[in-house]
Design brief:
By secondary structure, the protein is mostly helical. The longest helix is centred in the last third of the chain and has 31 residues. 10% of the residues are buried.
Length: 110
């Protein structure tokens, strides 16, 4: 009997999610899309941790280690979303644009 989800398949999907997130961060100029791409990258990393946790669950003392790491990563992702959205709202109130290359947004870089 074959398994539907092998560890290699889980890691491939996680790598694909991470790659799509990297592409979104590097190619988009809208700050909201960039934040969503960062979330995709975090979800790819979390999926990878879940896959490794599932793979090494049979080892003694390792059954909960991966799940604890996933829980911590999800907490960091939630904090990142809250902080990122608050920064986007503050920038929009100041600049009236969420475009990364807006003329007034580039003034904030210096």
């Amino acid at each position: 009997m074959t398994e539907i989800t092998t560890p290699d398949a889980i890691q491939l999907v996680a790598a694909a999610l991470f790659a799509v997130g990297v592409f979104g961060v590097l190619s988009r100029r809208n700050l909201l899309i960039v934040l969503m791409s960062v979330e995709l990258m975090l979800n790819g990393a979390i999926l990878s941790l879940v896959g490794f946790s599932r793979e090494f669950a049979h080892l003694p003392g390792q059954s909960e280690a991966g799940q604890v790491m996933v829980l911590m990563a999800m907490a960091v992702a939630a904090a990142e979303v809250a902080l990122g959205l608050s920064i986007v709202i503050a920038l929009f109130r100041h600049i009236r644009s969420v475009d990364v290359d807006a003329p007034r947004a580039t003034l904030l870089r210096s």
